[in-house]
Amino acid sequence: MRNVTRELAHLSDEALVALMARSEQQALAELYDRYGRAAFGLALRVLRDETLAEDAVQDGFLAVWRTAARFIPEQGKASTWILTLVHRRAVDLVRREQRRRGDTLDEVADPVGGSVDEVAWLRLQRERVQAALRRLPDREREAIELAYYGGFTQSELAERLGQPIGTIKSRMFTGLARLRELLEETAPEMTWTPETSTT
Amino acid sequence: MDARDLHDLTPAYALDALDAEEAAAYEAHLGQCEACREELTRLNEAATALAWATAAPEPPARLRSSILDAAAEERWNVVPLLRRSWAFRATAAAAAAAAAVAVGVGVWAAGAHSTRVVSAVISVGPSGQATLRVSGLAVAPSGKTYEAWIIPAGGQARPAGLFAGGRTAVVHLRGTVPQGAVVAATLERAGGAKAPTHAPVFSAPV
Ligand SMILES: [Zn+2]
Fold it and tell me: What is the ipTM of this complex?
């Protein structure tokens, strides 16, 4: 088992997805080892409940497993696809649980803070994205953070922020477009790399 | 909603900020609109960057094994029905008197975003006592519960236990499962029902 895992460690995410499409379970294990932690952090941020976060991560990774054959590399990175599936499950769950009902806007802020034992590459990614987010105009950041971490729909946001829906749409659009530019300025790829993940 | 409105939904879709109905309309549009597909690829990458901005505590170790176990089980479960039931017969015959018989069922249900596979494995012991292990079923909405049923051949459904769904639910079924019975589950009002009031979320002959 160990040997197989080590062999797979040299494969790209996309190669692992191709292996998963052929039902190679080791490829799923390897992808979980690369992104499970980020996925769990994300789900926890949205759901603020460990059990629900585990459910979201499990559902998300099983969706990854089932739909591997349908993954199209031209439409984005494998890591983005995996985290998107986990995020979707987390948002479905938070809406069902209505956990965020009655939340004030700033409660969507990260409740956990940095943890000491976080692996180095994850911390670097986090600091890089947080720096980019801080450079967004407040209203744009607010719209995309409430949507992404809070699980609010654009209509709910329009109501909550007392703005027409068109305004919310354009804040989301400019916010995301600007975030993308900011992230491109500060290079490194947001994917797992063997060198930095071995601690 | 006309096409121009649909193009406008790309950023919200990338952030998962559409309701189920809007998301379904947008996904249908996506199949026909190259421009939206390209824009979504870009915006999705930016939206997912937010995932990396959160603190990432170590997930519990059981999560990894739970995912891998469920994946392994599903592989077995998505074998086409006919072949699967053959496989069961072979297993059942070989196991004959002593061991438990496992029965699996794969259910595909279309959701707003994608498909979900529910797998149910029923282990029946030699004297008919049975355990049901269900994974992939959505958590029952508040005020509702899943209820398991044992339906003897030609008989009435007997309530066999309540469970909440979620990642993996293990239910020790109340009563015994006779040869030729069907085990099923329905979504019922909290507290359960005396007889099923809804179509089963899955059912499997044992
Ligand atoms: Zn379009």
Answer: 0.86
